[in-house]
Amino acid sequence: MNILVTGGAGYIGSHTCVAILQAGHMVIVADNLFNSKAETIDEIKKITGKDVVFHKADMTDEAAVDEIFRSHKLDGVIHFAGFKAVGESVEKPLNYYYNNLVSTMVLAKACLRHGVKRFVFSSSATVYGDNAIPYVETMKLQPTTNPYGETKAMSERILTDIAKANPDFFVSLLRYFNPVGAHESGLIGESPNGIPNNLMPYVTQVAKGKLKKLRVFGNDYPTVDGTGVRDYIHVMDLAEGHVVAVENLTEGVHVYNLGTGQGTSVLQLVKAFEEANNIEIPYEIVGRRPGDLPEYYADAGKAKLELDWTAKHDIFDMCRDAWRFEKNYQE
Ligand code: NAD
Ligand code: UFG
Q1: Mean pLDDT per 10-residue interval, the chain, length 331 residues
Q2: Element (H, E) at 273
Q3: Which of 71, 73, 158, 316 is the most buried (most CB within 10 A)?
Q4: Cα–Cα distance between 102 and 58 in angstroms, integer?
Q5: Is 98 a catalytic residue?
Q6: Which CATH number fits domain 2-181+232-259: 3.40.640.10, 3.40.50.2300, 4.10.320.10, 3.40.50.720?
Q7: Taking the domains of the chain in order of start, what are their residue ranges?
Q8: How far, CA to CA in Å, does 14 sit from each of 67, 165, 186?
């Protein structure tokens, strides 16, 4: 298959490009490099020994997107391109609604116009909101509390309605839990701009000495040790999930959780990182971060049953691979 990967120079997209190429498909990347670098495309080529076509293009630009669809005979689209910082989405809601929704609609429109059937969308566990755990795909989604989450719920709705009206448009909505880690080569990984918002990149920067100590946001939650619990998933497992999702995509709308089904607390992750890498992570307990939920993780049963997909890496692999990338990474 020829797969268009939007946002393919970014964190999850680049790892997915590797997995798609290794599964024997062709990859066309479209990215405006807003939050990534063109060199990542070279790293993908280096890891796989395969060629990648790269278009520097904005997915909200209808003419540019149409040009890409005209120049390749595409079999499917995996749509990663978008903005993803929850806090920033509260400060700049219009940017988030515009970029995340318009890109989704422009791409769906191009698929219909050019007869491209398969559309895989990057959604998020955030669409479940404050729900019972584990999160199951059949749950009624809760209103989310930030524009970023809303863009994911709205995009899911838009794609679902388009698929209902167009039987030749097949949609897979992938709800990611907490992607962490890096490709085992250490050549690609997560490199956020500025001070990281997310736990694992913060921990790796503390390990590197770039940041002094981790701030643990609250230790009075009703969880195993009082700190927040999440379902961390190795980014290469997540990438494999996309390969099976696009390969097996059939008529209709299919929703899958991509998680391990396992919860890990902040302090458990810190301990795993210390053990996996033999590095001490200094930390202090501070107040809760507004908007954080105490605990959630996936019911990962549906992806196993229907796609025969399960996450293979454990939390130690995630910590080891995240650190290998950070250690090598030059800004
Ligand atoms: P990322 O920022 O590393 O990658 C996104 C890529 O999209 C970047 O390379 C950026 O330059 C590009 N991009 C953004 N807007 C674009 C546009 N209009 N046109 C072309 N390119 C554009 O982020 P990521 O962590 O790899 O996330 C990928 C997707 O997965 C996003 O949609 C994100 O919302 C979703 N997601 C991420 C997480 C997570 O924790 N990382 C969790 C759930 C869902
Ligand atoms: N945490 C800390 N200190 C930090 C950063 C995080 O203690 O410096 C804690 C948080 O309080 C939380 C846990 O670590 O308990 C994980 O926090 P992250 O910021 O890494 O991840 P979130 O679960 O808050 O959110 C992430 C993405 C969202 C996405 C969601 C999907 O940022 O975009 O996963 O599950 F929607």
Answers
A1: 98 98 98 96 98 98 98 98 95 98 98 98 96 97 88 98 98 98 97 93 97 98 98 98 98 98 98 98 97 96 98 98 94 79
A2: helix 266-277
A3: 158
A4: 11
A5: no
A6: 3.40.50.720
A7: 2-181+232-259
A8: 22, 32, 13
**Cα(22) to centroid of ligand 1, in Å?**
22
Atom nearest to 9 CA in ligand 1:
9
Distance 242 CA to ligand 2 centre (A): 22
Residues contacting 65, CB < 8 A, separation 6+: 30, 57, 59, 106, 107, 110
DSSP 159-224: HHHHHHH-TT-EEEEEEE-EEE---TTSSS----SSS-SSHHHHHHHHHHTSSS-EEEE-S-SSSS
> Among 294, 313, 149, which Cα is nearest to 225's?
294
Mutate to test the pocket of ligand 2, among 122, 178, 190, 238 (most ligand atoms within 8 A of CB): 178
Residue with the nearest Cα to atom 9 of ligand 1?
A: 10
pLDDT of residue 142: 87
180 neighbors 318 (Cβ within 8 angstroms): yes
How many helices (H) does the chain have, and how many strands (E)? 12, 13
CA atoms of 242 and 245, how far apart (whole Å): 5
Choice among 148, 232, 256, 297 that is catalytic? 148
Q: Torsion over CA of 286, 289, 295 and 296, rounded to 10 degrees?
A: -140
